[in-house]
Every structure is written in C-alpha cells, then in structure tokens.
Amino acid sequence: MSRDQALACDMAAAQAGDAEAYRRLLRDCLPVIAGLARAQGVRAEAVDDVVQDVLLTIHRARATYDPARPFLPWLRAITRRRAIDGMRRASRRPREVHDPIAYEAEVDRGPAPGHHLEARDRERVLARAVAALPDGQRQAVEHLALQERSLEETAALTGRTKGALKVNLHRALKALRRTLGSGSADRDEAASRPGERGTHDV
User: Fold this and answer.
1) DSSP H or E segment with residue 95
2) Could you tell me the pLDDT band of residue 72, with boundaries at 50, 70 and 90?
3) What is d(CA 83, CA 36) in angstroms, rounded to the nearest whole number?
C-alpha cells in the first residue's frame, strides 16, 4: 500500500470515529507537512508553526475530505495555503529592536495577577456542571463542544443519532447557561426536584 493510500485509509477510518487511526494519520502527516512547508520557502524557525496550523485545519476540515480521492493532493493544498499565511504573517511582524528604555516604559499587557487561579476555578465549576448533566447531554457537550468532534464522529462513538445529539447539545447548553448563570439557590431548587433530570435526555 502506498503512503497516499495508507493516509487515505486512515482518514476514512478517522471520519468513521476510529481515534487510533486519526492519531496515526496526524503522526504520519507531520514529516510530510514539514517537508512541504520547507519546499514552499517557509523559514526553518517558522516550520513548526505552519505544521500546527495545518494540523488544526485538518481537524476542522476533516469532514470535507472525500475518501474516494487521493489524500496527498488535499494535504498539499492545505499546507500551501497555511504556508502562504505563515509567510505573510512573518513579513508583517515588526523586527525586534534593543531599547532598554522602551522596555521599562512598556505597559504589561499580560493577564492580571490571579488570572490563572480564576480561570482554573471557572474550569472546575464548568466541569462539575457538565458532570451533573444527564448522560446523553453530557456526552454531547464533551464530544461536540469540548473536544470539537463532528456529529458523524460523535454518533459513531456514542451510538446516538445525529438528531439526538443535536437535541441533547441544545438542552445541555441551555441547562449549563441556567446553572452557571444562577446562584446556589437556583441549583438547590433544581436539586430538590428529583426525577426531572432524566426527562430531558434523549
């Protein structure tokens, strides 16, 4: 089997929900993307950035690939566009100037003190809220929203229909907005009504 055929097979399997095939595909694409980027004229220090951009594009556009067509031309087209984008960004990037006085006067645009602690707290609250959802809604949020999987991939992984996943995601997001946007009194009131949780799941 040629490299193109192997990559095409792995992509088709990944589209059907095979996580191992998807990991293998991305791993095998790395040297191909790097070589294509260098051939496009991307500087050595910027190759990794282009590789990451291409991998993200593959992830977002994987549902658009037609398994009946060769994989490498599809990958080359994506890499060519991302390489051009990367070179344009590099050409607009200002050169570094050594100016100690300017460094002293520069306003710190980084996150405020305590920002990371607040972010971790928000993540913990969100994780608890998601874990409290009914199974169908929780799976829809985890796969579709948090892990950014496609409907097709999520349906294959969970055994649920795409229609059920859409309904569950809609209900889950509504429930999360209500939970995260309300105080503890609202959560206590919801918890005091047993039997309602499962009625919203599909």
Assistant:
1) none
2) very high
3) 9
Q: Is residue 187 predicted with pLDDT exceeding 90?
A: no
pLDDT given for residue 190 in this prediction: 43
Whole-number Å distance between alpha carbons of 177 and 81? 38
pLDDT at 200 over 70: no
Element (H, E) at 14: helix 3-15
The reply to whether the predicted model has a pTM over 0.70 is no
* Per-position b or e across 41-61, b if 16+ CB within 10 A of its CB: ebeeebbebbbebbbebbeee
The span from the CA of 196 to the CA of 199, in Å, is 5
- Token pair 């874990």 is at which residue? 131
Distance CA 169, CA 11 (A): 26
Helix residue ranges per DSSP H, 40-161: 47-61, 71-92, 100-105, 115-131, 135-140, 151-158
pLDDT at residue 29, rounded to an integer: 94
Is the distance from CB of 35 to CB of 76 less than 8 angstroms?
A: no
- What values do phi and psi take at 195, rounded to 5? 90, -10
- Mean of pLDDT values over 129-139: 89
Cβ partners under 8 Å of residue 69, min gap 6? 8
